[in-house]
């Protein structure tokens, strides 16, 4: 099958669709990237389609059932409903992109799926991960081959299965360094998602990438629990509260933060329910927001070289308080992805387009320096299709 998909690229770079549905359950990001799996030739159209409240409820139920299940016993029935729902939502999002986009014709799609449970390796035991998503159904709906289940091969080899975006982040940083005509360059791509992570790259060392700590996830959880929306718009609730510094000091003693990378987190390792259930609503929002920023800064301070540029991507960069906390320490080195022509809300989707191309060409998508795998791993399962579009 892989040789068949490799033929898609025999004439050079091609347009590839990439999808991302994050743990915040806000919607589906779809993006087009023209690539040969080694470099980014062109960034194409992209779109975000928000989940309806009913869809979010189904996905949230599956996520909660996954946490209760925790790999033991019968697979929850809610998974099947959620899997079909989110797969069809992805197909609909892609069809809208094709309808209103720039006329690009993709030959392949990279389908991350919806993470409902991620258990990193622990005490010598291999980890497990589960992303809901029916690759066969998506291929049928789109009429093009699909690469999915990107993380399992890495975890079966002993890796963390995350983060996977670093190989794409390094391609973006290489593109920016070339644009600046800089041979020696130290940069960071910071993804402020449900879990925050970054890729640190310099010219004379392998890249370093890991989950830094909680991102938007606990904040969104806290806001939604109190019926105040899906996220803290403009950080208005956090700005009205008081930061409990003594709590943050305690949380930073968690062994995760002293563990050397590679390392990864599940979205619910630092849940709002565990952290701030004894606080007022505003104080909880304020303290969770400060904690997210603090973990990013602590991780950056551990890097071998201070970066010249930290490019903020993901939904968290729209939170002005998180960005202010980061800017207070990083100064002008912190920039929004959009300021250099990147699509900050599309980068995760773009990454899975890039990874799909690499998987089709049997190129590695994870590495010892990023996931802890024993060797570079080519991941992803391949679905071909004979359906005519």
UniProtKB/TrEMBL annotation:
Belongs to the anhydro-N-acetylmuramic acid kinase family. It catalyses: 1,6-anhydro-N-acetyl-beta-muramate + ATP + H2O = N-acetyl-D-muramate 6-phosphate + ADP + H(+). This is Anhydro-N-acetylmuramic acid kinase. It is an enzyme of class 2 (transferase). Catalyzes the specific phosphorylation of 1,6-anhydro-N-acetylmuramic acid (anhMurNAc) with the simultaneous cleavage of the 1,6-anhydro ring, generating MurNAc-6-P. Is required for the utilization of anhMurNAc either imported from the medium or derived from its own cell wall murein, and thus plays a role in cell wall recycling. Coiled coil: none annotated. Its EC number is 2.7.1.170. HAMAP family: AnhMurNAc_kinase. InterPro entries: Anhydro_N_Ac-Mur_kinase, ATPase_NBD. ATP binds at residues 22-29. GO terms for biological process: 1,6-anhydro-N-acetyl-beta-muramic acid catabolic process; amino sugar metabolic process; peptidoglycan turnover. GO terms for molecular function: ATP binding; kinase activity; phosphotransferase activity, alcohol group as acceptor. Keywords: ATP-binding, Carbohydrate metabolism, Kinase, Nucleotide-binding, Transferase. Pathway: Amino-sugar metabolism; 1,6-anhydro-N-acetylmuramate degradation; Cell wall biogenesis; peptidoglycan recycling. It comes from Hirschia baltica (strain ATCC 49814 / DSM 5838 / IFAM 1418).
